[in-house]
Amino acid sequence: MLTSLEPVVARLLDRHLSSARPWFPHTYTPWSEASDYDGPLDGEPWRAGQSAMSAAVQDSFTVSLLTEDNLPSYHFEIATLFGRDGAWGTWVHRWTAEEDRHSHALRSYLHARRALDPVLLEEQRMEHLSHGYDSGNRSVLHGLAYVMVQEMATREAHRNTGKACGDPLGEQLTARIAADENLHMLFYRDLYRAALDLAPDAAVTALADVVCDFRMPGAALPGFQERSLRIAAAGIYNLEIHREHVLLPLLRTLDVWKRTDLTAVGEQARERLGLHLEQLTQNAARFRSLFARMNLDGSASG
Q: What does the pLDDT profile of the chain (302 residues) look like in tens digits?
């Protein structure tokens, strides 16, 4: 599969390099508005009241940053899966270089804005990175399917975090990061479309496996479940967004529903995808009702 797809990787890499534009994390940090912290500079310690962001937005920025911090593990995963030679290797290193900007830009911005507790953030970073990351992907097709869905989901999460943060600079930064994620998603999506043509049954089966058991790479973060509920209740990222803005567009663009070259194995996988989407619709409706009651009760505030 890697050998068969390499010409497609080379073509998509050329397209990506012609589309990607350079940007610089330091230009998104409000240096003139920042102040020294306690420690060697003897500045002012961080206090909770200094953050102008809601609890849900703080949660979302925390999850986004700590997820981006774990890039060394992600690089190891894809370099091991795709290799370090030829067009695959060139893509792996380029992807890593572009992704590496995200944590630097987010951390500088959040520290300058005093949006999050920097000590707690560093403690959580150490804990999260010390455990590493294991995708559990069983094949090249599983790996490709996962990164395709994950890049699309991450794009939506960054973009919506910026819209919810109430800070024009924060929105510009997250939109810039989301633009990177979008280009990465386009690369993987179009590569997966080629994989579907090469091995329709196997590719649809791998896609169904990934979609039906999808977890964001930050799911192992401390307190992720509680944070994800607040993020969902705030409308930043929830099951409805995952279904409507991630899964449905991908499946539609890949023409999964229209394929006529599947055997019984592929048809079974496609049926699993349809059932999963139905279940997501039902679960999203339940959570929407729950969040509405929480807001009415005032229990979701803060």
A: 999 999 999 999 999 999 999 999 999 999 999 999 999 999 999 999 999 999 999 999 999 999 999 999 999 999 999 999 999 999 999 999 999 999 999 999 999 999 999 999 999 999 999 988 887 767 999 999 999 999 999 999 999 999 999 999 999 999 999 999 999 999 999 999 999 999 999 999 999 999 999 999 888 888 899 999 999 999 999 999 999 999 999 999 999 999 999 999 999 999 999 999 999 999 999 988 888 777 654 344 43
62 within some domain? yes
Q: Secondary structure of 31-53 in the HEC alphabet?
A: HHHCCCCCCCCCCCCCCHHHCCC
Report yes or no on whether pTM surpasses 0.85. yes
Binding residues: 68, 99, 102, 151, 181, 184
Specify binding-site residues for Fe cation: 68, 99, 102, 151, 181, 184
Q: Which domain holds residue 160?
A: 51-297
Domain containing residue 285: CATH number: 1.10.620.20
Q: Judge whether 283 lies within some domain.
A: yes
Inter-residue contact 91 to 32 (CB < 8 Å): no
Number of structural domains in the chain: 1
H helical segments located in the chain: 2-19, 55-69, 71-82, 86-113, 118-131, 140-164, 168-198, 200-212, 224-233, 239-241, 248-253, 264-297
Residue 156 CA from chain centroid, whole number: 8
